[in-house]
Amino acid sequence: MDRFKALLATKGDKGAVTAWTELGHGDLMDGDVTVRVTHSTVNYKDALALTGKGPIIRKWPLIPGIDFAGWVEASTHAEIKAGDDVILNGWGVGEGHHGGYAQYARVKGDWLVRRPQAFSRAQTMAIGTAGYTAMLCVLALEAHDVTPAKGPVLVTGASGGVGSIAVAVLARLGHHVIAATGRPEEEVFLKSLGAAEIINRSELSGPARPLAKERWAGAIDVAGSHTLANVISMTRYGGCVASTGLAQGMDLPGSVAPFILRGVTLAGVDSVMAPKPRREMAWARLARDLDVKTLDALTVTRPLDDVQQIASDLMAGKVRGRVVLEVA
Fold first, then answer.
1. pTM of full prediction above 0.70
2. In which band, very low, low, confident or very high, does the pLDDT at 299 lie, cut at 50, 70 and 90?
3. What is the DSSP string of 141-177?
């Protein structure tokens, strides 16, 4: 295919202006592997980029999309050959390097992970950066000895991408999961993923006390700001909070009291630049600990042409679970 379809973002007065266009292989950026993209997805960061509500894109013009799955059409990388099934998450793709909202991508082979046999290409994008990040958070809790025997685990933003995968994985691992959401109508959905309790996010969104009643042994937070401060203040002695989002804000208006009086750990989780061995560990654990039927139940499939509308819906809180984009 000499020419291919791509969504190209250019810089406008109020952020990104996107339009479908036709490009050639010469328009792709440097890399030693060319991938025929078959599937992508929409993460919170993608929605910020497409709606212009966050300064995600750093190089213009750019093909957005921080995730993609597909097969290798050409490679000069020593460990990757034509025909390999591969996944890409992060590494600045969709931010400073052409991303997954196109029929082709050219990237560094070191950025790619081979698709686990347990998942189809579509299922890897149902997981996407959101689910891969959720597993990195689970690994962070495990590294700090947060076990089911220690007590409940909280997940904020539970009906979103990171949250829904985190709930499903933690429940399958035997944890008593408390799901915090601003959408009480999603209670049945969250309990179908394995949540044992549902709380309204309003319980956590106001100013935090330095120390509040101990409620959970660990937590995965995607909100930041007052929510994260409250989550930390309610974490049990020796517990751990994995922080990986800023949906409420980038600030942390809390106290050091939980850290010095209860020995609580705040573990920052970055998925964009995580080293390849850690990525491979996360994907191996997803293949083991994420039930495929549960994954399919929280996933909807849409054509790539719908990506702009999906991004707007996600920012408006109208998307639950995960969306797979089929790249025609």
1. yes
2. very high
3. HHHTT--GGG--EEESSTTSHHHHHHHHHHHHTT--E
